């Protein structure tokens, strides 16, 4: 195959020469030099790439720790909010369940064997309180005299009941004089 010399002009009208395989023979020394250059080039590329990765990692490390701390703080907040929700749900259930309270008084400062009592009782919950019973405890100078019970039956939620329900006075016969009155409630749901 004839190639034009570097000094001769190339004719554009001449057909392009066809390519034919060419045999290349490399000496052992050339092969060693090529292998060493490949290893050196690969090693240098790896070194600079490694330094670049380390630089990027070092620059991202504060961000990673900051993000981890923010995630931990958010998880703590979520946990606290879940506890708050659980507590509020418990409070809602307690508000809905029957809750009976009230007060009672007797006329005068002391009762001598017969006392007139009035008062009120309320169910603060939204559910009915069933089989409501009030126990009145009579005392004289701190010493127990006797107990009496009053059955109110069922009291609907959010309801106030006056005692006695009519204008008539309710009297209790006592075994001895009394100067103190306390009370307690029991009910079912």
In the predicted model, the low-confidence regions spanning at least 5 consecutive residues are none
What separation lies between the terminal Cα atoms?
111 Å
Strand content: 25-35%
Task: Specify the number of helices.
Answer: 1
Helix content: 25-40%
Number of domains: 2
Q: Look at the structure and name the CATH superfamily of the largest domain.
A: Immunoglobulins
- The chain-level mean pLDDT equals 84
| Rg of Cα set | 50 Å
H/E series: HEEEEEEE
Q: Which architecture name of the largest domain does CATH use?
A: Sandwich
Shape: rod-shaped
The computed structural class is alpha+beta
| Main beta sheet strand tally, sense and closure | 4 strands, antiparallel
**CATH first level of the largest domain: which class?**
Mainly Beta
How many β strands by DSSP? Answer: 7
**CATH overall fold name of the largest domain:** Immunoglobulin-like
List strands and helices in order, with pairings.
Layout: H1 28-96, E1 100-106, E2 114-123, E3 129-140, E4 143-155, E5 159-163, E6 170-173, E7 180-188
Notes on the structure:
Helix content is 37%, strand content 32%. By secondary structure, it is α+β, with helices and mostly antiparallel strands. The chain folds into two domains: 25-96; 100-188, Sandwich (Immunoglobulin-like). The strands form two sheets. Strands 1, 2, 5 and 6 form a four-stranded antiparallel β-sheet that branches. It has a three-stranded antiparallel β-sheet with strand order 4-3-7, with no helix packed on it. A hairpin with a 2-residue loop joins strand 3 and strand 4 (143-155). The relative contact order is 0.13.
């Amino acid at each position: 195959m004839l190639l034009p010399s570097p000094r001769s002009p190339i004719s554009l009208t001449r057909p392009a020469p066809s390519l034919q395989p060419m045999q290349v023979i490399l000496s052992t020394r050339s092969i060693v030099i090529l292998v060493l250059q490949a290893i050196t080039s690969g090693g240098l590329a790896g070194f600079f790439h490694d330094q670049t990765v380390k630089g990027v990692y070092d620059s991202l490390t504060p961000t990673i720790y900051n993000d981890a701390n923010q995630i931990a703080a958010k998880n703590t907040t979520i946990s606290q909010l879940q506890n708050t929700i659980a507590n509020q749900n418990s409070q809602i259930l307690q508000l809905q369940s029957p809750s009976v309270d009230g007060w009672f008084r007797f006329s005068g400062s002391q009762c001598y064997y017969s006392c007139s009592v009035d008062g009120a009782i309320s169910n603060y919950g939204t559910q009915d309180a069933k089989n409501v019973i009030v126990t009145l405890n009579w005392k004289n100078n701190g010493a127990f005299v006797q107990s009496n019970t009053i059955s109110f039956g069922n009291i609907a939620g959010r309801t106030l009941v006056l005692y006695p329900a009519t204008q008539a006075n309710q009297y209790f016969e006592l075994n001895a004089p009394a100067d103190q009155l306390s009370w307690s409630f029991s009910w079912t749901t």
